[in-house]
Amino acid sequence: MSKLPKVAWIGLGIMGSPMSENLIKAGYDVTGFTLEQDKLERLAAAGGTAAGSIAEAVRDADVVITMVPASPQVEAIAYGPDGILENARSGALLVDMSSITPRTSVDLAKAAAAKGIRVLDAPVSGGEAGAVEAVLSIMVGGEQADFDAAEPIFEALGRTIALCGPHGSGQTVKAANQLIVAVNIQACAEAVVFLEKSGVDLRAALDVLNGGLAGSTVLTRKKDNFLSRDFKPGFRIDLHHKDMGIVTDAARTVGAALPVGAVVAQLVASLRAQGDGGLDHSALLRAVERLSGARL
């Protein structure tokens, strides 16, 4: 019998499925639940156990991990008679890896404590590729002892792992991450349109730029998207729109100005309004092309 903690995984989407599979590969007993039957079948095929409900998934778990799109979904799976807090055992550790508002994480930790359940907020960065390759950055909020208990699990999922402060701190750092990523993608998109309109060899230009100070993980990961105009979602515009709302609201609360971030947030919102919300966030290129009169 494995001495590793038993894990319940709630949310098996673009990120959750490969992450849960990496835990299975690392030897963890993973029971999962999601609303999509094909995702449950994928988990079972990878060696996990498919549950018929949240209650069934979390009942015997030592660690419950959630990975869902936004705060409303976290609240929906956490609270109520069929939710995690009513059905997980006292002493369990709830690790929410969703990207939500810091306030939602703080409120969840308080509600869970009343049930004897410990909580960490642990959002991630790295996109689908980072999830598949188990090289995610994981930014964590909560108590040191709980972080120490969860660290072996984090090490099976990511490469850069840090406890950033008390409950909500992981979400605050993730909000800053999404601000940086969005502004970086926007700058890359503007450079791509500028280079193409100038008639240079775009592939050569991006290669040489990525080897200098202008290089970034964003450019490395998204360069082929720009070159091929392949915007199959690794991280959807819809989700980045949600995240830009989180960071602009949180910045307003603490009195931090985001002049460039606010502009990029509006560009992300405009993409959604034009029907591009389901595309990868590298589709910010389409917004620059429209503004530049380029043919999409």
From TrEMBL:
The enzyme's first-digit EC class, named in words, is oxidoreductase
Named from the GO MF annotations, one term is: 2-hydroxy-3-oxopropionate reductase activity
Which keywords are on file for this protein? NAD, Oxidoreductase
User: Which residue windows are transmembrane per the record?
Assistant: none
InterPro entries from the UniProt entry? 6-PGluconate_DH-like_C_sf, 6PGD_dom2, 6PGDH_NADP-bd, HIBADH-like_NADP-bd, HIBADH-related, NAD(P)-bd_dom_sf, Tartro_sem_red
Known EC number(s)?
A: 1.1.1.60
Question: Which residue intervals define the domain 3-hydroxyisobutyrate dehydrogenase-like NAD-binding in the entry?
Answer: 168-287
Q: Which residues form the 6-phosphogluconate dehydrogenase NADP-binding domain?
A: 6-163
Q: What Pfam families does this protein map onto?
A: NAD_binding_11, NAD_binding_2
Regarding protein family, the annotation reads:
Belongs to the HIBADH-related family.
The protein's name in its UniProt record: 2-hydroxy-3-oxopropionate reductase
